[in-house]
Amino acid sequence: MTQPTDIRTEHLRTALSLAASGIPVLPLRVGKVPFGNCRRCTDNACGGRPNMKNAGPCSCPGPCHGWAAATTDSDVIQSGVWRRAWVRASAVAYHPGGAWLTVVDLDNAEAVTWARETLPATQTVPTTRGEHWIYLGPMPSANAVRPGVDIKSTMAYARYLGPGSGTMTALPDVVRALTVKAPAPARPAPQAVTGPAPAGGGPCRHRTPAYLERGIAMAEQRITEARAGIHAAVYRTFLAVLSTHGRCGCLTDTHITRLFTAAQAKGESARHCTNAWTNARTTLGL
């Protein structure tokens, strides 16, 4: 059923506002599901979108491929084929991981009570049956990590339900731990990879050097792909990197230089980079 004109306009306006803030968006149809692939993309015949499993390049101009269609490109969002999708859209969704965010989706009152007793306070958005708790920092998505609790971050989408209330805080370890599965009893426990000692003493908590490298690469990509609000995008990226890696001592001058170089390539001055880094450290108490 076609949505009233004012609702269609509001969805598009919301999508453009989010995209301008560096949050990748996509339309949802009735049932809170993405639009299906077009004929030429059926069964991923096109190879898929970047960052998808078994992905390849795809030049499809439409909102195909679910979460991987999410974009911050205002020209794409307002293009003809996307406008036709907005006409049928019932809601706006976004890719949390693409915005360096994690949504803890609490689907009932019991889950909300658990979160209030267990998780650090953060930005909270009411939903139809529960709440979304939004943290700064990406992580793997997973469903049913405990009764009534889903994690929506990388390779997932979440419905946008408004700005909510409260101040967003850095993604805590207690949320990351929800998706960590215990090793199978028949297999030997993985050997920890030692790294530089954190400021408070003790080994680096990251299991492999690849974890840090992937995080820095994602941060560079996040800065490089920012199309608007560069100052805010750089600061949020620095904050996300420091929230994950700032306390264990594994960040080196080389990593920081890579982030500053990516920011300056987008027009940031060295002074702005230094200020953003310092402000992020101050926010996190580092």
Which word captures the global form? Answer: globular
Largest sheet: 5 strands, antiparallel
What oligomeric assembly is this protein in?
Answer: single chain
Q: Total number of helical segments? A: 9
Bin the strand percentage: 5-15%
Radius of gyration (Å): 20 Å
Order of helices and strands: HEEHHEEHEEEEEHHHHH
Give unreliable regions as ranges.
187-202
If strands are numbered along the chain, what order do they take across the biggest sheet?
5-6-4-8-7
- Number of DSSP-assigned strands: 9
Helix content: 25-40%
**N→C terminal distance:** 52 Å
Description:
The protein is α+β, with helices and mostly antiparallel strands and 286 residues long. The protein has nine helices and nine strands. A five-stranded antiparallel sheet has the order 5-6-4-8-7. A four-stranded antiparallel sheet has the order 2-1-3-9. β7 (142-146) and β8 form a beta hairpin. α6 (209-224) packs antiparallel against α7 and α6 runs parallel beside α8 (253-265). It is globular, with a radius of gyration of 20 Å. The model is unreliable at 187-202 (pLDDT under 50).
